[in-house]
Amino acid sequence: MRGAGIDSRDDPEILAEHVLGMVAGMPARLASFGIQRDPATQERHTQVAVRLFLRSLRPD
After folding, report:
1. End-to-end Cα, the chain, rounded Å
2. Is residue 32 packed enough to be buried (19+ CB in 10 Å), middle (13-18) or exposed (0-12)?
3. What is residue 49's predicted lDDT score, i.e. its pLDDT?
4. How far is it, in rounded angstroms, from Cα 60 to Cα 51?
5. Residue 6: predicted pLDDT
6. Which residues of the chain have pLDDT under 50?
7. By the 8 A CB rule, do 10 and 56 touch?
8. What angle do CA 5, 12, 10 make, to 5 degrees?
9. What is the pLDDT of residue 4?
10. Which residues lie below 8 Å from residue 52, measured CB to CB, with a gap of 6+?
11. Euclidean distance between CA atoms 17 and 3, whole angstroms
């Protein structure tokens, strides 16, 4: 992904791990503070994370 410091040659498994952190880890962390995103907001965050992942796999 241009301009984001992500090299498309990076290991896809590492990139997938980061996506899972954004999609599952952050909601769990927020929940530990008693914060819960509404379903529409969580869906939006998930879609952005997936797009980021897919763009990172795209060759420049």
Report:
1. 7
2. exposed
3. 86
4. 15
5. 57
6. 1-3
7. yes
8. 40
9. 57
10. 1, 4, 19, 22
11. 21
